[in-house]
Amino acid sequence: MTGIHHERGAVSTELAVLTPVLIGFMLLVVFAGRVAQAEGDVANAAHEAARAASLVATPAAALEAGTNTAAANIAEGAVACRSLDVSVDISDFAAGGQVAVTVTCQAAFADIAMLAVPGNRTFTSTAIEVIDTYRANAGASP
């Protein structure tokens, strides 16, 4: 019976030591998940913008559709961009050609993870969409 009394409170001590480690691990998992979500949001914005740009009739409309769609997708997503750059490549805007959209978003880690994490990260994604080969008005002047 005397051996049991000297271990009294051992579980409480172990729990007190391990709790900060477990909380730190959980915060790291949350941070990694939020970064992955931000990467996905930027990739989705590029894809949706390229798709929107490929569906319009003129190069000018493609520029506008791509830029507006990317900005709207980023605004709806979880990532708060401090600096957003959308580049719409319409150099091959013709039936059977393609449109490429590159979205670059600079975000602070604190904004991404909603934790007090220092630093910034730039997320970049490019998407390419083919313009319908049988579309009669692709590349036509407005």
Task: State the end-to-end CA separation.
Answer: 93 Å
Mean pLDDT: 85
Strand order of the largest sheet: 1-2-3
Number of discrete helical segments: 4
Number of strands: 3
Q: Would you kindly provide a written description of the structure presented here, covering whatever features stand out?
A:
This protein is an alpha+beta fold and 142 residues long. It has one domain (2-130). 51% of the residues lie in helices and 23% in strands. A three-stranded antiparallel beta sheet has the order 1-2-3. The mean pLDDT is 85.
Properties at a glance:
single chain, 3 strands, 4 helices, 3-stranded antiparallel sheet, alpha+beta, 142 residues
Strand-helix topology:
Elements: H1 2-5, H2 10-54, H3 59-76, E1 83-92, E2 98-108, H4 109-113, E3 120-130
Antiparallel strand pairs: 1-2, 2-3
Helix pairs in contact: 2-3
Give a concise summary:
With 142 residues, the chain is α+β, with helices and mostly antiparallel strands.
